[in-house]
Amino acid sequence: MQINQNKLKQRLIMLSFVASILLTGLKFFAFYLTSSNAILSDALESIINVIASGFAFYSVYLSSQPKDRNHPYGHGKVEFFSAGFEGALIIIASIFIVVEAINRLMDPSPIQNLAQGSVFILFTILVNTAIGYKLLTEGRKANSLALVADGKHLMSDSISSVVLILSVGLIMLTGYVWIDSVASLLFGLFLAYSGSQLVSKSVAGLMDASDELLLDKVIHVLNENKKDEWIDVHNLRAQQYGSDLHIDCHLTLPYYWELQKVHETIHDFENILKASQVGETEIFVHADPCVYQCCYFCRIDNCPVRQHAFVQDIEWDAGKLTKNEKLYREARINIQE
After folding, report:
1. What does the sequence similarity comment in the record state about its family (predicted)?
2. Among the four residues 175, 180, 296, 306, which has the most C-beta atoms within 10 Å?
């Protein structure tokens, strides 16, 4: 399943790469027909699509490679780097577009054949939207930031092209040539924002920033499948590197259990988490022995060493489970209240 998923990701990125080359050629031909600065800006931004798709293909290929001695956690982090690289290229392109738009506002030049050029731009909108939507959908399924970033880039390219078509229509209706440069300026600012968002997300991933949505998903699975013998879970951490998910935590179990029973329980715990994920999931669980304070929220029936009656459950959420301490402190607070 994992091999097929990686092949699908590579095929989608290759499709994006080939389509980007063809569509970039069409946009430059549209600029040749019209001499429109806005169309030129769109064409220049499409060069970024080509470079980014090529790098994204390499990153998806590399992230699919198995872990090795030099990369014990796999190669999935390269997808964060790919998204950041794409974002940086977008920002560079936006700077060039803004500068060129300002120059054309100060020294306008004639525009021609807008109707013919718009036909080519409309075609690129349809193709970019279809491929971008597919990349976004499959990228989210596979937890691939490289696919999602490339899909968002193509979708933003489609949106900007729609704005471009509207500006062309306004020029044809009003005859105001300066609308072309204003549209190009706005397009450049939009690209700068889009690129900065990609860079920000990339840096967060490379720095192992907490993914609250991912944590909530893992905790939801634990709550849905909670067993009485899982006395508590703490020091929970989850990181997504490409399609690979890494989870580690401490699981509190009865201190009097034999090692074989502890091993079997941890194995079941890991399998429940793995079954809820797409792609490879690597889990490290540290077994902690219970202490007498855990009795207040422990649901094990007929416990031979129980020192306190059960009082109440403790709700498992990200705020509690990510702490590096057993949950009996939470129980004590609740009981006092």
Report:
1. Belongs to the cation diffusion facilitator (CDF) transporter (TC 2.A.4) family.
2. 180
For 284-300, the pLDDT digits (tens) are 999 999 998 899 899 99
Indicate left, alpha or beta for 278 from its phi (over 0: left) and psi (-120 to 50: alpha): beta
Please give the full DSSP string across 172-220, using - where no structure is assigned.
HHH--THHHHHHHHHHHHHHHHHHHHHHHHHHHHHTT---HHHHHHHHH
Amino acid at 314: I
Q: What are phi and psi of 232, to 5 degrees?
A: -160, 160
Mean pLDDT (whole number) for 316-334: 76
User: CATH no. for residue 309?
Assistant: 3.30.70.1350
* C-beta separation of 98 from 189 below 8 A: yes
Residues 83 and 218 grouped into a single domain: no
Among 168, 190, 206, identify where a domain stops.
Answer: 206
| 36 φ/ψ sector (left φ>0, alpha ψ -120 to 50, else beta) | beta
**Cα–Cα distance for residue pair 155/125, rounded to 1 Å:** 9
Q: pLDDT tens across 142-181, in order?
A: 777 778 878 877 887 787 777 777 777 787 788 777 777 7
* pTM score of the predicted model: 0.70
Structural domain of 301: 212-336
Largest CA-CA distance found in the chain, in angstroms, rounded: 90
